[in-house]
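Hello again,

I reread your note about wanting to compare the complex against the isolated chains. To keep things tidy I'm splitting this into two emails, and this first one only covers the full assembly. Below are the input lines as submitted, including protein chains and any nucleic acid or small-molecule components. They are followed by the predicted structure of everything together. The single-chain runs will come separately.
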Amino acid sequence: MRLTTKGRYAVTAMLDLAIHAGEGPVSLADISERQGISLSYLEQLFAKLRRNELVRSVRGPGGGYQLNREQRDIDVAQVIDAVNESVDATGCGHSGGCQDGNTCLTHHLWCDLSSQIHDFLSQISLADLMTRKDVKTVAERQDREQLASFEDSLISAKVTA
Amino acid sequence: MRLTTKGRYAVTAMLDLAIHAGEGPVSLADISERQGISLSYLEQLFAKLRRNELVRSVRGPGGGYQLNREQRDIDVAQVIDAVNESVDATGCGHSGGCQDGNTCLTHHLWCDLSSQIHDFLSQISLADLMTRKDVKTVAERQDREQLASFEDSLISAKVTA
DNA sequence: TAAAGCCTGACTGAATTAGTTGGTTAAATA
DNA sequence: TATTTAACCAACTAATTCAGTCAGGCTTTA
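Full-complex prediction:
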């Protein structure tokens, strides 16, 4: 099982996309600012998300990314799979060749755990996450912060002008 | 959440210990041979397991390790915690300071997942694992292999003598 | 007293993460 | 049409972790 910031970043970014879906394509620069993830790292993640057809892109000014399906048809497991290539606790890729060709003593335990985790994450869609109170609260805070820093940049632009 | 060969090795070794509990202390050399884990790596893992009071050691010739509790009182989560220091999917250690001091958008999701995994693993004891058919099958194979390689070494000792 | 075991710490190669740098291409707008 | 915006792409890198080795201890008991 591989669950690092990589997968967390991907899910966070996808949720940000879902939250701001009503405002047209969302640029990676916006996501970067709101979620505190480096722009170029986001580019790498979205390349994979796009190859897995979870998002579609709109190029040029005013462009950005959009979800490629309904929010309830994208679950967390799909997003993590897309960037991690595999969500697997076995280490032998379920093949059973963990101990020079044979299955190791605990092979089946890790198989069970893998499917447990996968089941859990695949039952949670972006739509589900959006309805959560804690998600709403954090999203509102992030929007406020982004607006504030935008206004700041307007002021400093005026000062330097 | 951190689940790598490290935790898997630890659980495998503990299960080996449980299986061969009837034969007195089990040496790391035996575990190393049966489970295909390097001896010095096992030493590192068992140092942590001992500090966490999951095993006790018997020194001197014929010595080795033994479980420090009943098999049903040692669960998989305890073993993984002992060698990994933490089994946590959040990345902020449940503190909520994931996004420069504030909680990130998906913080609670990872909290939920962490406890899901922990619950699953803490409900499986070494005693539970021992009753599994797949575990028994693999254990028998490993014992046969070890015996075979021991007999081989006897023969080659005779030849060189 | 020596063999067999444990303990410690320092070190290493490989892989992965989390980026950075420096471009290019496509589309909208001025 | 030139410029700007933002996606796209590829190579590189610093830091970390994993998995394991190595060297040299120290303890216990046959």
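For quick reference: The two ends of chain A are 53 Å apart (CA to CA).

B.
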